[in-house]
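Entry 14. Two folds queued back to back today. First construct below, sequence then structure tokens.
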Amino acid sequence: MPTAALQDVNLEICEGEFVAIIGPSGSGKSTLLNILGLLDRASEGTYSINGAVVSLMAEKQRDWLRSRMFGFVFQASHVILDESSARNAALGLRVQGVRHLDRELEVTQALLRVGLLHRTSVLGKNLSGGERQRLALARALATKPRILFADEPTGNLDSVNTQSVIADLKALNRTGVTVVVITHDPIVAAAAARRIVIDDGRLAKPDAPGSPASTAVHEPMVGRPDPTEVFSPAPLGRRLNLLMDDVYDALASLTSRAGKALLLILAFMLGSGGLVASVGLSQSASAQVSERVAEAALDEVQASRSPSGVQPTNADIAALRGQKRKIENLHGVVAVGLRVELATSEFRPTRFQPNRGIQEDDFAGSLLAVDSTFLDISQAVVEPASALSLLDNSFGKPVAILGQDTAVRLGIPSAGPGQKIWIGGQSVPVVGILRQAGRNPVLADSIILGISAYPSAASDNPVFVIRTLPGFPAPLADVIPLALDAAHPEHFTVNTVADLRSLRKGVNNDLGVLISVISWVLLALACLSAATSMYLTVQTRRSEIALRRALGTSRFSIGRMFIFEGLLVGLGGGLAGGAVGVLGVLTFCLGQGWTPVLGPESVWTGVAAGAATGVLSALYPAIAASKADPAQAIRA
């Protein structure tokens, strides 16, 4: 059976009274104050304010009444430590959406009234305990409340500060403000004109309301809102003020924990920057391949055996050369080169002799068997130039030409006597270094062997690389299979530019998808990190959230504040990521000798992705913050 915190409470408080509710700890004093201040709701009974029944009010109406009719001072001051005294005192006015100029005037008067005007710019964390409690009173006074609720306002103060707070409460009451104080301090209770004793949830001594004679001395309340006026949506100007204050609060929260915020921005920067880089690299690679394809489109065709074609025997290298001559005799053919890609797993190229105990990484480049015509067609530059002739005339002995990247990786700066590598356990002299790969970038990271020294290459599906006159690739694509085998032209496949374009599209898509997936994973991790961080922040800011709710901030506004924090972090990371992504694309393209291609939409994609994931990361913390119970959080 649930325990009743309050029972049979029949109480009336008149306008202008100074009432002290006293009783032992756990008697229900704070629960009564929470109900009176609309921080909590009674499970049974009726509570009316100037005849308006609270149970019939929507939550927005209760928030609206708290922000305009009530002021709160709690035992804990709930001062926001990283904000100035002026910003703290203006919190209730910010909730109301008061204009900045009017806000400054009200805050100045409130701080002057409690003797803190000289501490206007001091951060809350640098104030003493007594100053913080007086600042809490100034925060309540700034909104010109009709009723002030004070829950143990002197509980943490010394005698001097206690007397100061009592004097402030009396002075406020003399202006016509109704003051309701929860206390167990007899000095504070003695200052009240009326005392109500509560014990075990019941009114033990229900005093009568103050008589008209006792309240008639109060000054009239000029310009204060009527709590029974019809609730209406805020005008546009006040909504803009509220929105700007939420943005400012989000910025203030982030700057107060700058280290954590910067780490979150860095996480979002990596994700959005990778996204921008993925788009830029994909576009740049597409342009680069398109350029190479365009070069080959006019004068290059590649032919090879289809899977159904008959392969020559290992010794039939002469038949392969015969097929080459058939292609060379076709009209429109300028030159024909041979290229065979050998399996590195079979030939195992190494820098040093195998089985000597020297550990080497597997070769990651290409191992090619070609003739000199292939390198001529590719417009490759070999040093020394005489090395080309050795590919075709090495007297049965294998020789190697190294691509420039391969030479650097193997530690062979130049060709010459004594420079050698090992292919399939056989020593192979290095007779040349490829200084420029020409039209075939793959050659830069390749080991190039003479095809005549490897007759077995004829069975590895060699490729005929055919240089043609401009405009001849398309007609030759139809003629070459017939020239090689008129009875079975289907045994040969010819790759035209259309095939290469299809390949280009596939490669670029694969590259873009790979980097995009990595980028989205980084963004997801950043989102998770930000969500965790902001959720922990919600827990540490429970007191501030409860205070804002007590002052009339709506649940939506509380959630919106955290949404703005996520948006600002994500937007900052997105902007930084856009810049880093562009810089990364430029650096990579310059290093590769590419022309960088990066449309403005890709940069904005990164920024938008950062902002969107930032908002997404803040959703759950925002919901958790908006659902906080102010009555419970104030006590925590």
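Second construct, same run, same settings:
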Amino acid sequence: MRLLFVLLLLSMSVGVRGAASVADEPRPEKTEKTKVSAEAGSSAAFSGKLLVVPMDGSHWVGIKAMAQELGRRGHRVTVVIPEVSMRMGPGKHYDTLTHPVPYGQSDIDVMVSMNGIMVRSDGPFMERMQTKFQHIKRVIDFIHVTAESLLFNDSFISYLEQQEFDAVLTDPVIPSGLLIARKLGLPTINLLRGIPCSLDMKSAGCPSPPSFVPRFFTGLSDRMNFKERLINTLVSSMAENMFKN
């Protein structure tokens, strides 16, 4: 069903629906609505209502492109974002709904600066890996706080229930989208390059030996010498132990 829904969304086009009026909470951002291009046609058989719950940072790039394209083709796309974020914001072909969060722009700036420090670091390999894993833990705490601020906002969730969406497009790195989809009884569409600790590989039963498949944060390719394979294996073991704890 999920695959069928995605294919329908990506292959059919209709005229853009007018934006619905929204109460003070949640607060929608006013976005420009454009007419669907002439080649899209005006008598498509299907028009979907898609709820998008994205992840911030570089993860936002792929989901934003999909939301823009689906909105351009005439589907009603609504993106849920926190009031404060690194990259997320209004778009030309989708609506946005913002929800309050218990942190400010200064907290976002600190996380971004820490990431820049890690990129420029030239210390020992194990020291750099430890710093990266500490940063990941901070990001996980940040995701947890953001998810709670959304999921425990009863008026916001109630508003989403009234919109009668057809599906939820989300990034499985964050739990918010999957939990909202379960709450609303909707199918989910997951968009992600990969899951830490190769959990996506394990769940699919796909072989992913560290001697051949490079892990996150190593910068290695699938062509590794003995030293690089050893490093990749150590990183794989550290990642698995970290997420078990």
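Quick look at the second one. The helical segments are 2-11, 59-72, 105-120, 125-151, 154-162, 176-184, 199-204, 226-244. Residues 127 and 191 are 32 Å apart (CA to CA).
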